[in-house]
Amino acid sequence: MTTGAAPARTGGPADLAGLRQLAVATLDANWEHDHTVPSRTLYPHQWSWDSAFIAIGLAQVRPHRAWRELASLFRAQWADGRVPHIVFNPAMRVGAYFPGPELWRSAIAEGAPAVDTSGLVQPPVHALAAWLAYRRAPGPASLAALRRLYPALVAQQRYLADRRDLGGDGLVCIVHPWESGLDNSPAWDEPMAAVQAEAAVMRAYRRHDTMHADAAHRPTDLDYARYLAIVAAYRDGGYSDRSLADGHPFLVECPLFNAAFGAAEHALARIATLLGADPGPHRARAARITEAVVRRLYDPATGTFAPRDLRTDRLVGPRTVLGLAPLLLPDLPTAQADALVVEARSARFGVARRMDRPLPSHDRTAPEFEPLRYWRGPSWLNLGWLVRRGLLAHGHPDLAAGLRHSMISLVAGAGCHEYFHPDTGAGLGSPAFGWTAALLLDLLAEDVEVESD
């Protein structure tokens, strides 16, 4: 791809078959006995929302592995219902990843599992993944696996609703940027600036990410110093959520996290119906979440959604792809859905007619846009995949088709990279990334329609 050009068109069925083969080979190479590592180099353990996205793709080609993927993650669920964002592989040597289990020390916490984990969570896309895994490969085995997983998915949602509604308004509060999934997004610059830490702190640690990826593409040492300060504050309180509102350094209601929270209840309603359970409570909670997302996080002045910093009780941050995530909510009111489509088609994120340009993670027109640095500009398949679902759900199949084309073209041009330059299409981060391969498989299954999900 050339700078500023639209992605090249992929060829015929042979080209698509080759992409499918590449995706399957990537997932097979990253399989680790009962789960898939996101990357053999950068991320050698199990990550929470990675496993959810990976299960969606595995259902297309290895359905039994899709259910093993989810089951292995939920075996590390804490007694309070939280699903940790990292589950550490005990076979890996100490120091193989930073920050590793020796920093998290999850065993100190009441209700932590026997295996070492982090104490944080990630966007709850797991119920949606479970529902889609069943839809992609229905049958008795999938139904039995879904039935076994359903109580754990309910417990995950109950934890978020009961323990993390720190504002008392029906939304989940994240307590670390890592919980958003978009670690160093410009959305967090303002709340992170209030976290007391110095870059010099990192002299005591050895980062492994910059050994496998260009440091100019990764979060800075100051970012990491602040990340560790927040982890220490949470860990030293035993990972208890009871006292977070009394001074925890990072408390934010995130649009993407809460959109996933609401979408999970819609998925659980479908699962409950299939299993003969009552879908009513899930539908009721989904409606409450959507109402709260609009009431608390929508900014009518900009026509998009923004994070709310609970420490200042105001919307913060520049316009990022987080603001488009509420399209995931099928009951998002028409006024807000239409405003988000305008935002998605603007020069900030797409193009006016087709949206066949790679979706950036941050506003292309903003001064802090960095097309090479992690979540400060590059294009990620998981974000495009989520926005595409939202476009389909709200009646924009033409825009969804353009976005699908852009994502397939990125992989056709650069392979299954972790993320991509949003203008040139150059592959960035890990060259063999799990969720890129998995979501490519889902995108290549053209017969899948969101409306039938």
What is the structural class?
mainly alpha
Total of helices = 16
The stretches of 5 or more residues where confidence is low (pLDDT under 50) are: 1-9, 447-451
Amino-to-carboxy terminus distance: 34 Å
Q: What's the total number of strands?
A: 11
How large is the share of residues in beta strands?
A: under 5%
Helix and strand pattern: HEEEHHEHHHHHHHEHHEEEEHHHEEH
Mean pLDDT: 91
The multimeric state of the shown protein is single chain
Using the alpha-carbon principal axes, give the shape: globular
The rounded Rg comes to 20 Å
CATH topology: Glycosyltransferase
> How many separate domains make up the residues?
1
Indicate the CATH class.
Mainly Alpha
Widest sheet: strand ordering: 5-8-9
Main beta sheet strand tally, sense and closure: 3 strands, antiparallel
The residue fraction in helices comes out at 40-55%
CATH architecture: Alpha/alpha barrel
